[in-house]
Write a structure and sequence with these properties.
The complex is a heterodimer. Chain A has 20 helices and no strands. Chain B is α+β, with helices and mostly antiparallel strands. Helix content of chain B is 31%, strand content 17%. In chain B, the strands form two sheets. In chain B, strands 3-2-4 form a three-stranded antiparallel β-sheet, covered by helices on one side. Chain B starts with 10 loop residues before the first helix and ends in a 9-residue tail after the last strand. Classes of the chains: A mainly alpha, B alpha+beta.
Chain lengths: 420, 126
């Protein structure tokens, strides 16, 4: 791995904690974001020569804070603070800072920041967009995709959210227990979006940005400590664990996607599955089903099947139907269609899929699934069209390559069938 | 004399290890496990799942109270433990409730086990 790739990873991993600490210090979203960006730039300049600091997060906070203070002081014509080149040698300062950042206080910063971003003055969509931008550093394009909206619309939404937070006066007080409970649903949604961004990894080079998934799972466990008896928090954490357990088996050595039915299940992470199943057990006892619990139950049925042929598709189709009641969404219906195709065949699945066309026309998986179903029905021409649409919408090379396999096979068959 | 060695550590730190870091620690521990096992001195070893997976049965009330989360009191001390094989949490709670009827008071924390090595003690091998 090149130095720059390593630094990129370190910056992404350090971002939530560093942003939270800088925000706590400056109490201003834009100043904190600028401070973090400045620190990141200096890291890119310094780390390749000087080597990485022992604690990159502490370094970024220290340098970011000084850079922001420095610019304030420069404006006030005061003496500048020490340069960051010297800071790497200031062993005592660095160790001292790392020590102060250590422990529960430091770890909880991220979660506190999430609760702050989920300020009730903001509409839900703005809360989550803001949190993804500020806490996770996702680009506007990445967030827009997660919400299935256009980039400029999302840009506007984030700008409006920032303005609103700034106007709200003292929005960065740590919310108390009552506010936390009120904001829980938004925070859970945010954690799951963060997880999904790592899981489906758009934009970036790595097919799976595992760090985001790990961070989301860590936040889920932390939420469980704050809300130990909340079944949806158990469901969310279980869902993330069960999905992330498959990480090692999802891509081949060349980064190509391996579908769940073809995955080597011995490479699934048994410990994560055990933890996920244990959490579902706990959640079920409350008899308050919710969207996360149902999705976790679906993931659990996959995790419990030793071979893909053992999968309990009728029960999965039933669970997706229950999920449609809790969380009506064309994407959920699309997933139900996949389960239905296993139990009732492609024709029944297509009957569910076709009405979704209008709402999912910009959704990669819609065209991929539709193409596969049409192919199964022997409607090669239409399948080819659907796969072409899917390729045009693919966000990662792995997604495009996966669809290309179908197209290549169709072309090979067409070539064989045509007269010599 | 048999000794139980109870393992305490910060969950935030251990839970934050990458798979490689975790594997490296387990590999080093495995060297010690192996030696003790060959000497016939190692009983069962268990690594517990995180406290977020825990459920607590308070048996100082009747009927006993089932609470989500780990045992969190400081006025009671750890006096012993069981390892039982159960299909799910409900079955484990049924066992704990049965034990609780025989010995009311205090609490049981039920924690799923992530990694388990059976006993190597010669007297257990019968």
């Amino acid at each position: 791995m090149s130095d720059l790739a390593w630094i990129d990873g370190a910056l992404a991993a350090a971002r939530p904690q560093a942003m939270a600490a800088l925000l706590r210090y400056f109490r201003d979203l834009d100043v904190a974001e600028e401070a973090f960006q400045e620190a990141s730039l200096r890291a890119l300049r310094n780390w390749p020569d000087k080597g990485p600091p022992r604690d990159p997060t502490a370094w970024l906070i220290f340098v970011g804070r000084n850079a922001a203070l420095d610019s304030v002081r420069r404006k006030a014509r005061e003496a500048p603070l020490p340069q960051e080149v010297l800071i790497s040698d200031l062993e005592d300062a660095e160790a001292d800072l790392a020590e102060r950042l250590d422990g529960a206080d430091y770890r909880d910063d991220v979660l506190r920041l999430l609760f702050i971003c989920c300020h009730p003055d903001l509409p839900a969509t703005q809360q989550i967009a803001l949190a993804l931008r500020i806490v996770c550093g996702l680009s506007v394009a990445e967030i827009a995709r997660a919400f299935l909206v256009g980039e400029s619309a999302m840009e506007q939404r984030i700008t409006r959210a920032k303005a609103r937070v700034a106007k709200a006066g003292t929005p960065f007080e740590t919310p108390g227990a009552v506010e936390r409970a009120e904001r829980l649903a938004a925070v859970m949604a945010m954690v799951y979006l963060l997880f999904n961004e790592g899981y489906s990894a758009s934009g970036g080079e790595a097919p799976l940005r595992s760090g985001l998934c790990d961070e989301a799972i860590r936040l889920g466990r932390l939420l469980l400590r704050l809300f130990p008896a909340e079944p949806e928090v158990m469901g969310l954490t279980a869902l993330m664990l069960l999905q992330h357990a498959r990480a090692q088996a999802r891509f081949d050595a060349h980064g190509a996607i391996i579908l769940m039915e073809d995955q080597d299940r011995s490479r699934w992470n048994g410990r994560m599955i055990a933890e996920g199943l244990a959490l579902i057990d706990k959640a079920v006892r409350h008899r308050q089903p919710g969207a996360y619990q149902i999705q976790a139950a679906i993931a659990a049925l996959h995790a419990r099947s030793p071979r893909s042929t053992d999968t309990d598709w009728p029960q999965i189709a039933g669970l997706y139907q229950a999920l449609e009641h809790h969380m009506p969404s064309p994407v959920v219906t699309l997933n139900r269609a996949v389960a239905v195709s296993k139990t009732e065949g492609a024709q029944a699945a297509l009957a569910l899929i076709e009405p979704l066309g209008e709402r999912l026309s910009a959704y990669f998986h819609f065209h991929g699934v539709r193409g596969a179903m049409l192919l199964e029905e022997g409607r090669s021409g239409e399948a080819r069209e659907a796969f072409d649409r899917a390729i045009a919408l693919a966000r990662t090379p792995a997604e495009a390559a996966h669809i290309r396999q179908h197209i290549d096979r169709l072309q090979a068959e067409a070539a064989q069938a045509s007269p010599k | 004399m048999l000794y139980a060695i109870l393992c305490y550590h910060s969950e935030a730190i251990v839970g934050g290890w990458s798979k490689d870091e975790d594997d490296a620690v387990m590999e080093k521990l495995e060297v010690v496990h192996q030696r003790l096992a060959t000497e016939g001195r190692l009983g069962p070893v268990a690594r517990l799942l995180p406290t977020s997976a825990a459920t607590t049965l308070r048996k100082d009330s009747d009927p006993p109270l089932v609470l989500d989360g780990p045992f969190a009191e400081t006025k009671e001390q750890l006096l012993g433990f069981y390892i039982v094989d159960c299909d799910d949490l409900d079955q484990a709670l049924a066992v704990a409730q049965e034990l609780g009827r025989a010995n009311p008071g205090g609490a049981y924390e039920l924690r799923p086990i992530g990694v388990f090595y059976p006993s190597n003690l010669p007297q257990d091998a019968r």
